[in-house]
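Handoff note, outgoing to incoming analyst
You'll be picking up this chain. Sequence as last confirmed:
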Amino acid sequence: MTRLPLDFKTFSSFIAIAGTMTLVGFGCRTLQHGSALKSEIASLLNIATFPAEYSAKRQIVAVKRNGQTVDLTTTSLPIKIDILREDLLKVRLANRKSFDQEYTWSVSETFKAMPVAFKLTESPDVITIETSQMIALITRASGAISLSDKSGREVLKFDGLFADAYEDSMNQAPGRAPQKRLLLGAKFAMHADDHFFGLGEKLRGKFDQSLDWRGKRRDWEAPGSSMGNHFEGSDGGANGNVLIPFLLTTRGAGLFLDTVYHTYWEFDDPSQSSWYVKQDCDQDWEKGSPKCERSEMRFYMMVGTKPGTVINRYTDITGKPLMPPRWMLGYLQSNYGYRNWAEVEKVADGLQKDGFALDGIFLDLQWFGGVPGVYSETGQVTSEFSDCQHRQVGSFKWGKDKEFNFEHPREAMARLGDKGIKVVPIEEGYIDTCNNRESPYSQNFEEAKNAGFLARRNFDSNDPALFANGDDNADYAFGAVGYFGQVGMIDTSNAAARQWFWSKHLPILLDGASAFWTDLGEPERFRWWWKYDGGLWHQDIHNVWDMNRARSFYEGYTIDLPNKRPFILSRSGYAGSQRFGVGIWSADAPARLGWAAAQPSAHMNLAISGVPYSTSDVGGFGGFPVSNGKQYTRWLQMESFSSLLRAHGNTTVGENTKRIVHPNGFGEPYTSINRKYINWRESLIPYIYTHAREAFDTGMPIVRALPLVWTKDSNVQDLGSEFLLGPSILVAPILLGSNNEPDTQRDVYLPAGDWVDLHDGKFYKGSQWLRNFAAPLEKMPVFALKGAIIPKAPTSTSVSDKRWNATRIFEIYPANTSTQYDLYDDDGDSNAYRDGTDGFAKTTITVEPTNSSVSVKIGAMKGNFPGMPLERVYALEVHLEKDPQTVNANGQVLPIKETTEAGTSSLTPGTALWNPQQKKLLVVLSATSTNTELTFHIAF
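Most recent structure output, in case you need it:
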């Protein structure tokens, strides 16, 4: 798209030629010179119009302070600035003479302005707003806004507006002219040391491990090709694209663009002096007059002393991420798909028999019965679209047919629950027309249609919009075969529809399901002309459709299950989804090593954007290769240290029936390696859970991009192939190679600090590259930062196992100075953790090193929550650079015995085991009251 400079003088001459006051920008076409110019302009005027004042320089002529709001009258359109916090401004740039009524789904209902003391001063050139944390300078001549930290260092500068016009022939309503659209843009200054992160989840390409957006574009397809969130097909699978308009810079700034519309982000200006964001804007279908009531440019500018401060402020605005139930952080097994309870229980029993921890099993489409397009046991397509037996999307009932039988769900889920395994069924958001008053299955379609709870066909009709198979007159053909037959889509913008939708899901939870897995939420199929509650068009709801679906569950839990934690594993979302308990999986990832390699940076940028829980389909969902043990194991190793861990894949269609999706399905050595990593992850849940609480308190993600910590280290700014789990564990997955055969070595960068290899206990200095670092299949490079204190649990079958909660092991890496860690505990399931200071407990661990000793103190557990343990077995795993000579554990001198045993499989109370190869000391005490302070002293 070509953008012309919008100098107001030149702009006015164009206006004079055209004889109108409407043209503001040109796009997608090269303008001609000379006599052709008039006709070219006339043509563009027919494409899109917008008030000329929008892009003109907003020269400020009057300033008015009203409480914590500063209103700026300009020579074109007004500007409004709200001072919401000491470090936060909200800027509104009107697109007409008066401001729009604010329209937001993203800003949390609980977010309000706080009292802020600020100084407003004026000079002939600049208006200054100053608080204790920031300085905003507004240029009188143009309306540009420069935001600086308290030292006066500029961190973010808005530098003007522009508009581009285009004609959208890609999404054209039947019998109507192509839609006329605008891209409303804002220009910002780019500093030499700016690096850009966030903007949601985007897998940038096979083997693309880049992290920084500098020099790149985010979501730049042809205008009109999508509306933001979408499903990107590739290599026999498809990746998710979750666009969240929040940007973090390592210079100490954040920008949140509060819009529901598709945004395009450009950081590749050749001059590297500016970057741009564009917001798609609709036009009236027939008259071409402005119809952008909800698309004024409205953004939040924030400044922070470090990146975590900015993320904290952004999640104040859009909502803090809810804590998931603790079991959701364990190993989750899925498949497309299990056909009945017998298959599910066979898988569960097999994994536990083979020594795998297992916390949840996910059920795909088959759980609710026959679905057209899902393959049967004979390999034939089930496609009897006239037969409602095979069209049960939206019945919200457990399947009872011959192929997909999930009768007696309460009994089955109770049996699984006795083994510590939760069940999570999929949910689609659609209702088949078979679900009507004549159907033996349900009356849901008829109910939803009559109540107006479905998306409507267009602006002329209140009939439901339908996805259909084999119908040329339908709103959209849902694939060549069609998964669902003919379905309508829930209007999630309608509060009554959300309540009704929840009422259909509550019985499934009461049967024993523990959460929901929501699919197709971009939404995957739509038409631009569909209509929704309150006169909304599809573009008004597209990017927030899935967030509002999650909201229906959150609102329902609040009323009907107020003490149960809502959690949704979703394929899409938006700014604010996290406050409704949403985690995101990266869609139907292609089974290619290159797409595994692209996952970590997508996880990290999504986490920066406020959604700290994410995962991918371990091994890949579809495509080929279908059975590659090395690729599966490398993928599983990486996700074992992510915020969520779920294996999933397609085992029903064609060659995919050869796919292996279970970690014990490849034979040796893969089974043993996969078991090691899954159980390692299970042992780390006390640590992961502690930082889940940190995410709830501050928005700081569990999986962290290295620039969040080492903000000025040039080696990490675009390093998307490594990440931190919590503050102390550095992970360097092995995801490169050829022909889907992963490498057995890689370059590993260790940032500043001292590091310990978690496999062999070797110590390394930081601020260096470890070139060609050896990583055989059983070893993914994982390091701990010296000074770390990492709480763990013993290996068990699930977090519901009583043994898991009865013991805590503190893995300690003494540094040269004292360190402290607060272990977080709660009941793992209720909402008591949200009740201020009650509903949880903390245990403080302090490590004091000297040249000749290390002292460790485990404080009493402080707090209260249902089921809080009265006593625990406590153990230490201390990594030492010198051999220990004496060990005193709470006043008892323990004899030191040498061992070659790795790990903590031997937790015999009253022992001190020293492994000289791994330089690791294991000290175990008998069960002790959690109300007691314990002390340990290790002398060299």
